[in-house]
Every structure is written in C-alpha cells, then in structure tokens.
Design brief:
Elements: H1 2-17, H2 26-44, H3 49-62, H4 68-72, H5 79-97, H6 99-111, H7 115-129, H8 136-154, H9 168-185, H10 192-201, H11 209-234, H12 245-256, H13 261-283, H14 287-300, H15 306-310, H16 313-334, H17 337-349, H18 354-367, H19 375-392, H20 397-410, H21 420-426, H22 433-461
Helix pairs in contact: 1-2, 2-3, 2-16, 3-16, 5-8, 5-14, 5-16, 5-21, 6-8, 6-12, 7-8, 7-9, 7-11, 8-9, 8-21, 9-11, 9-20, 9-21, 10-19, 10-20, 11-22, 13-14, 17-19, 18-19, 18-20, 19-20, 20-22
C-alpha cells in the first residue's frame, strides 16, 4: 500500500511547490495539484476511494486552498449529486416491488438467447428514450439501472461475489457508453446540449433540434451498432450464449403470477416521473425535484422504507467521493485554471491550417474532461472559448458548433466521475476502476474516429463544409 500511496503524494507535493504559472491565481494551481494527486490516488487505489477524497478535502482546507464552510462542502448541496442519490433509492423501489425483476425477465424472454442480444436491447432502449428525457442521469439511474441490476442478478451475476464478469460487467459498460452516445445524438437528451445551442447562435451557427439530429444520425447510429460488438470482444462476458435463459425467464414469470399492488404503485410513480422528466422544464420542475417526488411517494406508499435507504451503501459511498470531486472541479474553474488553460490552447493553434487547428482544439477540449466532473460545467467553462477560437481560424461555424456540442457528451467516456451517469453505473461495483479508465480511453478514441471520420464525411455530404 505504501508505495502506491507515495506516488500521488509525491506528485501532488511536487506540483504544489512549483511556482504558479504567470497569469494564474496560485489557488488555481494549488487546487490543480491536489486534484491531480487525488485522481492518481483513486486510480492506484492505496486506500478506498471515499477515504482518498476525504483526505484530499482535508489537504485543500489545511493548505488554505479551499475554505471548509464556504467552499469545501459546497458540492454536497449540488442538485445533481442528490439526483444521483435519489435514483439509487428509486432503483431499490423497483427491486422491492419486484417490478424490476418482472421487467428484467420480460427483457430476457425477448432477447435472452445471447448476451450480446441483451447488450443491443439496452442500448436500443436508451436510443428510444433519449430524445424524450433531457437528463442522462435520469435515464441511466431511474430507468436502465434498475432493469439492468435485476436482469444480471437473475442470471447469476452479482457485484462483490466474484461473478461480476459473468454478465454484469459487460452490460454495465454497454449501458454507460450507450448513454453517452445517445446523449450526443439528440438536442433534448442532455442538459448541456441546449446550453451549447444558445452559445453557438452567438457565433453564427443556427442550430435547431432537427439540425442537431441530422448531423448526429449517421455517426450516432454507427456508434450504437458497434458498441455492444466492440465491448463483446474487448471486455467479453463469461456467459456468451444463454441457452436456458429464455426458458428460465418464462418459468420465473409464471411463478411471479399476475402484477401485485406494489408493482402497480411502482408503475404509477415511475409513469409520473417519466412525464415530469419529459415535460418538467415547461412546468418548472427539474429532474432532481422529480426524483425527490418519486422517492417521497415510494416512502409514503411503503414500497420503500427509510431502512432500505440506509442500507444502500453504493448511494452513500457515491455521495462522499463524487461530491468532493465535483466541488474541486468547479473551483478549478472558479480560480481561473480552466480559463488560463483555454487561453494557452488558443495561442498555440493560431497560425495553423484550420483543419489541423480544429482537430487540435477538439482533442484538447475532449481530453480536458479529465479535469471535470460534470458535462454542464465543462460546457459552461470552455465551449464558448473553444468555439470562438475555432471560428476565428476559419472552421465553418456550424461544423465547429456541432462537433464540439457532440463532444460535450462523448468526452465523459473516460472516467468514472465525468458525468452523473458514470457515477451511478460505476457505483454498481461491477467494473474495477482501472478497467473503467482503460475501456473509457479506448471508447474515447473510437468515438473521435467515428464522429470525426464518419461524421466528417457525412457533414461534407450535407454541404456543411
């Protein structure tokens, strides 16, 4: 443990003691050094992830980088954090009521002959609901996660008992990356997309829902079709053929009998949440409030108890580490580190041919997401600056605005903290952190090739450049 602990400590201390770059608030540099050390510590895992996050928060406060009351604990008040926690509890409601189990067996009955068929079923479900629900965390946690958990457990794959690779690890990865791909495909699939749309209008790129979808349809469908297949080869489940799964599912459904009262309650609550997730913006109810309403109704109807909530270790563990990382990432922006970084990139690409310069901008914009724990925060911090530089070097405004917009979902491939959906699905415990990062980097490269290559050709056919 000690050698693995010394690496992040030595790296963080070295960066911290270096002089702050010219034009950057020293607090920004100091927080960056602590953040980098935290991420390295989480990857090397000398201590549990929550422990590392708490120690990092302590160091931030003791060094005077963050004030505990006004800055250090702000992440715990974030609505996005609590949305993640609420959907963990709501998923328990699906399990308690047995509705999740019933849906899982129905899923297996239809697609359960091969594990890759289940993978395609999950990603196609994401594709169908993505345009309707403008929250990737609501889709991943409130809809896909309960079904996925019930399905893999019914087939003998559980987190923490050595059976993760049997099926669960594969389907978690397919679900996670599929969630990001579908978030990129539709203007209404992710909260940061409309933000990018508004910013783009200031640079002469008029983006409608149909324009966004028209540009995304070809690279998006290619990604959706390839994802389960790619994961099947690079991270295969132990169960590839499920010869008895369909018969088992039919038998279990017969044993379950007709729908019970708690299942009907769960359907009613879920239906209400679905309507509010789709229409909430027009009536002033956000995704987190919708999840809180659903949770309260499940508690009132006793589908869920407070004791059930206390037993959800994954939820409380996620609350501890994710809130701290989100907070540190937000204060990197607050202290000017992100703006300093963006300005430096802009200065380095000036004078290049626009194609090469734009490719460089996209790569930096994409991989700078290692420093963010929120898609929306990243878009708010860097989208306008990078779009401005892209347009100024001669990139067609529509191509620049849309490609950077698509990247604003896809750049969450890499880490377990890059979006709220990643925190939810990583929290299931099916995929080790080192594997998550390795597969995430691989998928980031695949996505850039598909969306930059296939997408670029498609946009050429459309006459956009």
């Amino acid at each position: 443990m000690l050698p693995r602990l010394l690496v992040p400590v030595a790296l963080g201390a070295t960066l911290y003691l270096l002089p702050s770059p010219a034009g950057l608030d020293p607090k920004g540099w100091h927080l960056f050094s602590i953040f980098v050390a935290t991420i390295v510590g989480i990857i090397l895992k000398p201590l549990p992830m929550g422990t590392i996050a708490i120690i990092s928060l302590l160091i931030s406060v003791l060094t005077g980088t963050l004030d505990l009351g006004e800055q250090g604990l702000v992440g715990y008040s974030s609505p996005v954090i609590w949305l993640i926690i609420y959907v963990f509890f709501i998923a328990r409601g699906f399990i308690n009521s047995q509705l999740g189990t019933r849906i899982a067996y129905l899923f297996v009955r239809i697609l359960g002959k091969y594990s890759i068929g289940l993978g395609y079923g999950i990603v196609l479900t994401e594709l169908m609901i993505a345009p309707l629900i403008p929250s990737n965390s609501a889709r991943a946690g409130g809809i896909i996660y309960p079904i996925l958990k019930s399905m893999v457990e019914s087939l003998g794959s559980r987190a923490g008992d050595g059976t993760e690779r049997r099926l669960g690890s594969y389907l978690v990865q397919v679900s996670f990356h599929g969630n990001l791909i579908t978030s990129a495909m539709f203007l209404t699939a992710m909260a940061a997309n409309p933000m990018a749309q508004k910013i783009a209008a200031k640079f002469g790129a008029d983006i409608t829902w149909m324009t966004w979808f028209q540009g995304a349809i070809v690279p998006g469908l290619v990604s959706v079709l390839l994802l389960p297949l790619i994961m099947f080869f690079v991270y295969p489940p132990e169960l590839k053929v499920l010869p008895n799964a369909v018969g088992l599912a039919k038998e279990k459904l017969r044993e379950m009998g007709p729908m019970k009262s708690q299942e009907w309650i769960m359907i009613g609550v879920f239906g209400l949440m679905l309507v509010l997730w789709i229409q909430g913006k027009t009536i002033g109810i956000d995704s987190t409030t919708t999840a809180l309403l659903g949770l309260a109704l499940l508690l009132l109807t006793k589908v869920l108890t407070f004791e059930d909530m206390l037993k959800e270790k994954e939820a409380w563990n996620t609350l501890v580490w994710f809130a701290i990382l989100v907070n540190m990432a937000e204060f990197l922006q607050e202290f000017g580190f992100v703006q300093w970084f963006s300005d430096g990139v802009g200065a380095h690409v000036s004078g290049m041919p626009w194609g090469l310069a734009f490719a460089t901008l996209v790569a930096v914009y994409f991989y700078s997401h290692y420093f963010f724990a929120s898609n929306t925060a990243h878009v708010g911090a860097m989208y306008a600056a990078f779009l401005s530089v892209a347009v100024s070097i001669g990139t067609p405004p529509l191509v620049a605005a849309l490609f950077l917009g698509y990247c604003s979902s896809l750049f969450s491939h890499m880490t377990h903290y890059g979006s709220s959906s990643s925190a939810i699905l990583f929290g299931t415990g099916y995929v080790p952190i080192a594997t998550w990062w390795r597969l995430g980097f691989m998928m980031s490269v695949v996505s850039l090739i598909i969306w930059g290559g296939v997408g670029g050709l498609w946009w050429k056919i459309l006459g956009w450049w």
